[in-house]
Amino acid sequence: MADLVISPARGQSQAVRLLLRWSLYAALGFFVVIYLMPLFVMVTTSLKSLEEIRTGDLVALPREVTFDAWLTAWSGACTGIKCEGVQPYFWNSVLIAVPGVAISTLIGAINGYVVAQWRFRGANIIFALMLFGCFIPFQVVLLPMARVLGIMGIAGTIQGLIFVHVVYGLGFTTLFFRNYYVTIPVELTKAAKVDGAGFFRIFWSIFLPLSLPIIVVTVIWQFTQIWNDFLFGVSFSQAGTQPVTVALNNIVNSTTGVKEYNVDMAAAIIAAFPTLLVYVVAGKYFIRGLTAGSVKG
Amino acid sequence: MTKWLEDHLPKLMLAPSFVAVLVFVYGFIAWTAWVSLTRSRLLPKYEIEGLIQYERLFASPRWDTALNNLYIFGTLFIVIAMALGLLMAILLDQNIRTEGAIRTIYLYPMALSMIVTGTAWKWILNPGLGLEAMVKGWGFERFSFDWIVDPDMAIYTVVIAALWQSSGFVMALFLAGLRSVDGEIIKAAQVDGIPTWRIYTAIIIPSMAPIFLSAFIVLAHLAIKSFDLVIALTGGGPGFATDLPATYMYAMAFSRGDIGQAASSAMVMMAVVFAIVVPYLYSELRPQKDG
Fold it and tell me: More exposed terminus of chain A, fewer Cβ within 10 Å: N or C?
C-alpha cells in the first residue's frame, strides 16, 4: 500500500505537487499539536505557581519554574481527610499491578497452551465462554463481587483487588496466548509426546522459549489495564488501599481548601507516568496488544 | 493413576480458570439478573417480584438522562472517532518520513488512565482559567466556551475528551488495514488512470469493511463502559446532566444503597453490550470451529 500516494495527475506542475505535500504536512502537524496540547498544558501548569496560573495564559510557558506542586502532589496533597499526597497510593498500585500482572499472565499462558495445543472436546466452547467474559460490562459483577470478597475476608484489601484483576484479566491473557500458540503446528507437540515429553516439559522447553514476544504484549496489556483501572479500585478498596487513580480523583475533586491546579496536574502526571513510560519504551508491543485484544476479540 | 493424570492434565490445568469464569462471570451475571427481579434496597432480597425494578428504572428521569446521554455520546464518539481515525490514517499513509514519531504522538493518550485524561481536560475546559480565559486574554472578549458547566453542553465535553483519548487508536487500526489492501489491485487501478480519491472510495475503503466493524465494536464497547472519564471530568454533573448508565449504576450501588436499581441498570447495560458483541463474536469464532 505504501505505493499509493495522493499525487496530482500526470502533467501537473511541480508547484502543485509541492503545495499538496505541504498541506499534507500541515494537516499532520495540526493533529500533532492537538494531541500534544493537553500533555504540554499539564506539564507547564504543574511547574507554575498558583499566582501565575491565576494571572497567566493556559499555554504560556512558566515564567518561573517551581517544583513545589510536584512535592505537594507526591507527599502532601489531601485525599479526603489524609494529606499524604499520592505517594502511598502509587505504591498501592504497584503492589496490586505487579502480582496481578504476573499471576494473570502465567495462568493465561497455560490456558492458551491447553486450548491451542491440547485440544479436547469442549475446549473451544470453554475458550468462547472465557472470551465472552472479556466483553461484559463490569457493572454486572460489581454487586456480587463486593459480597464474595467480604465472604472471602479480603474486602477492601490489596489482595482482594489483585484477585479481582486476575479473575477478569484471564479472558484476555488466555486469548493472547491462545492466538499465539495456535500458529505453532500441533505436530510439534505430538512429536514431543512421542519422544516421551510430558505436558509441562513441552510447555517449558518448547513453548516458553518461543513466547517472549507474546509475554511482553500480555504483560504490557495487563499492566496498563490494572494500573489505569478505576472502577474496581473505587468499588473494592477502602481508606488506605486505594490505587493511584482513585487517589488522583479524590485530590482533584476534593472540595476543601483552595483549588491547587498545579498540584492536580502534577498528581495526574505521576499517576500517568508508569504507563506512559511503558508506552514510550515498548510502544510496538503496546499497539500489538491493543489491536490483538480488540480486533481478534 | 499416573497415566490417568497425564491424560487429563490439560483439562485439569484449564479447570480452575473455567470454574472461575463460570462463577465470577456467569454466576455473577445470574445473581445480578436475579436480584434485579426483586425488591432489594440496601440489602439484597431473593423473593422474585417481577419487573418492578425495571419499571422504576424506566420511570426515573435520571436514568432517562443517562440513556439519552449514552445515545448522544456513543453516536458522536463512534462516528467522529472513525472519521478522524480514517482521515489520520490516510494522511499518514503517504510515505511520511516521520511516520513513526507522528504515530506515537497520535496514540499516546491511549496509554493514559481515563482519570488522567479527565483531569487534564477538566483543567483545559475550566471556563475561568482554561481555554476560554486564554482566548479572552488574546483580545476576544466575547469568546465563550463554558460547556463543562453548562448542563445542555457538558456531555459534549465528554465526547471531546474521549475522542482525544481514543481516536489515535482507531487511526492505528485503519493504518494497519490500509497496509493490508492488495497492492496489485491498486496498481492496476492507477494504470487505468483512476483518480486517487476514487481508488480510496471505490476500492480501499470498501475492502476494509471488517476493520470498520472491529473499530465500531471496540468504540461502542468503550462508550457503553465509559465511567471513569465522566467521573473525573464532570462527576456526572452539572447536576445529573452527564450521567451515563455506568455512573447511574455506580451511584445506585455504592452511594444510594439501592441494590435493585443498581442490578437492573447493570442488566440493561449488559443487554446493550450483548446485542452488539454476540453477533460479532459468533461470526468471529465460527470459521475456527473446523480449524
Answer: N
In this structure, the answer to whether residues A276 and A141 fall within a common structural domain is yes
Does the residue B222 lie in any domain? yes
Q: Are A174 and B93 inside 8 Å of each other by CB? A: no
**Cα–Cα distance, A208 to A84 (Å, whole number):** 43
Tell me the C-alpha distance between A135 and B278, whole Å: 9
Please tell me the distance from the alpha carbon of residue B220 to that of residue A138, in angstroms, as a whole number. 15
- A1 with B113: Cβ contact below 8 A: no
A199–B187 C-beta distance less than 8 A? no
Instruction: Give the model confidence (pLDDT) of B189-204 as tens digits.
Output: 888 888 888 888 888 8
Which residue type does A194 have? Answer: V
Query: Nearest Cα to A289, choosing from B171, B110, B224, B163?
Result: B110
Low-confidence ranges of chain B (pLDDT < 50): 289-291
| Three-class DSSP category at A63 | coil
Tens digits of residue pLDDT in B160-172: 999 999 999 999 8
Q: Is residue B115 part of a domain?
A: yes
Is B42 within a domain? no
C-alpha cell at B149: 458547566
| Cell 477538566 sits on residue | B122
The ipTM, to two decimals, is 0.88
The nearest CA of chain A is from the CA of B5 a distance in Å of 11
CATH number, domain of B271, equals 1.10.3720.10
Q: How far is CA A271 from the centre of its chain?
A: 12
**pLDDT the model gives residue B282:** 76
Average pLDDT over residues A162-176: 93
Instruction: Locate the chain B residue with the closest alpha carbon to A170.
Output: B17
- Asked whether residue A155 falls in the same domain as residue A20, the answer is no
CA dihedral in degrees (A110, A111, A116, A122; nearest 10)? 140
Q: Hey, which residues 115-144 in chain B have their CB within 8 Å of chain A?
A: 115-117, 119-124, 126, 129-131, 133-134, 137
Q: How far is CA A220 from CA A176, A280, A286, B136, in A?
A: 12, 12, 6, 43
B239 Cβ under 8 Å from any chain A Cβ: no
Contact A144 B31 (CB under 8 A): yes
Contact B92 A132 (CB under 8 A): no
The count of domains in chain B is 1
